[in-house]
Amino acid sequence: MTTAAIEKNKDTQNAAIEQAKQIQRITPAVDIYENDNELVFVADMPGVPKEGLDVQVEKQELTLAGEVNEHNRYERSFKLPPTVDVDKVSATLKNGVLNVTFKKAEHAKPKKIQVNLLK
């Protein structure tokens, strides 16, 4: 490799490092609620359009990501309990608030046990 090629490679690497430094990664505030039937994540992600959202579940881990612009990006991940059904999930975005709702698996829902009175 020539000296000029080595210098060009260094310049490219330095530019990539500078660009990565300029991206501000923001940890969104998230409230988590649970009831008998659902587990709900409510994340504050102001400025993120629907097209800028990336919500994924992989190996029982929920990842929330949203890009406001090329310099500001929200990112946060959560381990999901085995009580949720990852196939039964919905997500909504309204006024910068992302709601992700998981239905609980049937085996995890509380069951009422009938008690019989013996005579």
Describe the structure.
With 119 residues, the chain is of the alpha+beta class. The protein has one domain (22-106): Sandwich (Immunoglobulin-like). The protein contains one helix and eight strands. A four-stranded mixed beta sheet has the order 1-6-5-4, with no helix packed on it. It has a four-stranded antiparallel beta sheet with strand order 2-3-8-7, with no helix packed on it. A hairpin with a 2-residue loop joins strand 4 and strand 5. The radius of gyration is 22 Å and the shape is elongated. The model has no long low-confidence stretch (mean pLDDT 86).
What is the structure about, briefly put?
By secondary structure, this protein is an alpha+beta fold. It contains 1 helix and 8 strands.
Shape-level CATH architecture:
Sandwich
Radius of gyration: 22 Å
Q: SSE order in H/E notation?
A: HEEEEEEEE
Looking across the biggest beta sheet, what order are the strands in? 1-6-5-4
Distance between the termini: 94 Å
Principal-axis shape: elongated
Number of strands: 8
The biggest sheet amounts to: 4 strands, mixed
Overall pLDDT level: 86
Assigned CATH class: Mainly Beta
Question: What is the number of domains?
Answer: 1
Strand content: over 45%
